[in-house]
Amino acid sequence: MTATALRAILASGRVTHVPGVYDPVTAALAVAAGHRAVHLSGAAVSAIMLGRPDLGFVHATQIADRASTLVPALGGIPLIADADTGYGNPLHAVWTALSYARAGIAGLHLEDQVSPKRCGHLAGKEVIPIGEAAAKITALADQAPQIVVIARTDAYSILGLDETIVRCRAYAEAGADAVFPEGVDSLADLARIGAAIPGVPIVVNRSEAGGERPALTDAELAAAGVRLVLHPVSALLAAMRAASLTYRAIADHGTAEPVDRMPWAAFTALVGQDEALDLDARYVPKGLQT
């Protein structure tokens, strides 16, 4: 059902902003804020689980495992997850998609970088031939139709806009539900892509890793064909900043009082403490030591 909901969002004709989440608490916060879809970033998983950069340290298994812990907190809101390059050939990509679907992931984005990939915002990227990338997409569309496939291309910074358009068209024809031209930020370039592939939803990235970007309104983006705007690490960076300030305050002043924090009661409500206590009262026999 979540894949159906995600496809409806892509077909809606409006822009949906998709924030990054990385655990059940952030997932619950995103739902409470009213978001219609959320995103799980490979960079976030690599940082949270391993303390490592987004340079291929995590695999599909770790993304799926992390997703399985936060999907229950989403209440049916679709989760889009980073699938890197599919972690290998088309058969590996299918295995990735099926493992994601089992974890409750509604959609994935698959990129055309050479594997092992580099972070999309770093120099030195390379892309694989169009045919190889399209073969992965065709395999997913054929063998994992229960998951939404967003085809990402990193060709823009390497080969330019024309090649990006060629790849977006090829990937859409291969069966992708949407295309993700990484690094394309100007309204004129987005409009050219949209005109070249009418009816194909476009996904754009607003990661802080990409630096400053043109300020575009949702109306402008929608007119160019954009349907999803990803904000993969904004909440993670905000949380890290808040944690840094808190640790510094404790070190300097012996208290976290100078730092704005969520009230304890709000936190316990978010994680369902009252409901958990009610379940204990209902199912644990009186007098039983637990």
UniProtKB/TrEMBL annotation:
Task: Please verify whether the record's keywords include Iron.
Answer: no
Species of origin: Actinoplanes lobatus
Name this protein carries in UniProt: Methylisocitrate lyase
- Known InterPro entries for this protein? ICL/PEPM, Isocitrate_lyase_ph_CS, Pyrv/PenolPyrv_kinase-like_dom, Pyrv_kinase-like_dom_sf
Question: What gene does this protein come from?
Answer: prpB
What Gene3D superfamilies does the record point to?
Phosphoenolpyruvate-binding domains
- Enzyme Commission number: 4.1.3.30
Cross-referenced Pfam families, in alphabetical order?
PEP_mutase
Keywords, alphabetical: ATP-binding, Helicase, Hydrolase, Lyase, Nucleotide-binding
